[in-house]
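Intended use. Records like the one below are meant for learning the mapping from a protein sequence to its folded structure. Do not use them to infer anything beyond what is encoded.
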Amino acid sequence: MSDLLARVLSAYGGAERWKKLNKISAHQRFGGVLWPLKQVGGIVDDARFTVAIQKQWTSITPFTGPDRRSVFTPTRVAIESTSKGVLEELHDPRASFAGHTLETPWNPLQLAYFTGYAMWTYVTEPYSFTFPGVQTEELEPWNEQGEKWRRLKVTYPGSIATHNAEQTLYVDSDGLLRRRDYQVDIAGGVPSVQYMSGHREISGIVIPTTRMIYGRDAQNRAVPEPLVVSIELDDITVD
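Structure written out for the chain above:
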């Protein structure tokens, strides 16, 4: 384990604490231009998500209806009714995005896939960086707004669904993750930058409560307009 990864894990409560936990749940509020662009506005703007910590699984409720929820794994997504069970499902969901661009609309099952892997990626880090097949490497530091942030390159294996295989995380002097650079492969490979803030300690681990996502230019800088996605969390529980 690299010195930087060890520093980050310690700041987030330590790997041993994460190993004892099963799930994270929170109320989410989503904003930004992505959802209406993808013609899925309103479905997940105000909902509650739950992610498993020791495996890649996410559920969001309500989802397309007050008595419905999404269920995500890397190989299958579904929409379920609380009374009737599975209503729709899609196996090998990532294959359904072949040929997509940023403007290509999503159907509800594709939305379930995107939000499922995204929320799992976000709230299980940095613990997920220790999973089998995940590789990390420290890169040269980066100066932003008068601060010097260390950078951690994370390479995910194909077994983990996420935005793209190689992502770069930026670490502040307290060991907290403050920025992520990535591209959204299922939306035409759009370069993106995400800022994390509002870090809170809950049940011995740390979770950022605010994320702001923008486009990223050729100089590795955030494009301030438009705000692509905003994520705000409250009522967070850890079990």
